[in-house]
Specification:
The chain contains 7 helices and 3 strands. By secondary structure, it is mainly alpha-helical. The protein has one domain. It is elongated, with a radius of gyration of 21 Å. This is Zinc metallopeptidase.
């Protein structure tokens, strides 16, 4: 059973579609970011200026904004209350830069306002990290053990389920951050007509990568349950 874990029919049914969906989602976000990173916005607003504008609009003043190396490495760090913008975003006056920076500022606003799904995600993060590290060890060991020791396999699946919960809880957090970003962009007129639509396209494509990740996690969990149940029959 362990040898065929990766190659039996459940892989084709549960995992292969996820790989295709994830690849499509990643291609779309890369394409959208690349396209709108080449188009400057009319008002020449940079990423860092967009982030500052979103924070100011919500009265959030204690957040630092830093430059970070790499591409698409933008993120908000709640531990240090810092927004880190990648080099193509920080001081770039493009449509994509405004959208991405405003999104990360949206996360900072969530943190400042105690947005419930964000608080829940932060609370379960340590458990999910620990669970993801130990889950596959228990699962692989459980697959090698006789069926009477299936409790080891199911314990591993339980730990893995914790990481699945994290990916699902992440969805409302990401969608809400984009919603806040787009509202701020529109209300402050940072971007005009088609420019706004471009930023929306970038954020929508990025959101789909989180949907793909959650779908993959859920399907992987279902696959594990099918394999575990099959051992008992």
């Amino acid at each position: 059973m362990p040898f065929f874990y990766w190659f039996d029919w459940t892989y084709l049914v549960f995992i292969l579609p996820c790989l295709v969906i994830s690849m499509i989602a990643q291609t779309k976000v890369s394409s959208a970011f690349s396209k709108y990173s080449k188009i400057s916005n009319t008002r020449r607003i940079t990423g860092v200026e967009a982030a500052q504008s979103v924070l100011s609009a919500h009265g959030v003043t204690n957040v630092r904004i830093e430059r970070v190396a790499g591409k698409m490495t933008d993120h908000f760090d709640p531990r240090s209350n810092t927004i880190r913008l990648s080099e193509p975003v920080y001081d770039s006056p493009t449509i994509a830069a405004v959208g991405v920076a405003a999104h990360e500022a949206g996360h900072a606003v969530q943190h400042a306002q105690g947005y419930l799904p964000n608080r829940l995600r932060s609370a379960i993060l340590p458990v999910c990290n620990a669970g993801s590290k130990i889950s596959w060890i228990l699962i692989i060991v459980g697959l090698f053990l006789p069926v009477q020791y299936d409790w080891v396999l199911y314990l591993g699946i339980l730990f893995y389920a914790a990481s699945v919960v994290f990916t699902v809880v992440t969805l409302p957090v990401e969608f809400n951050a984009s919603k806040r970003a787009l509202a701020a962009i529109k209300n402050s007129a940072m971007l005009e007509g088609n420019e706004y639509n471009g930023a929306k396209s970038v954020l929508s494509a990025a959101a789909m990568t989180y949907v793909a990740a959650a779908f993959t996690a859920i399907m992987s969990l279902l696959r594990l349950l099918v394999i575990a149940n099959r051992r008992r029959n």
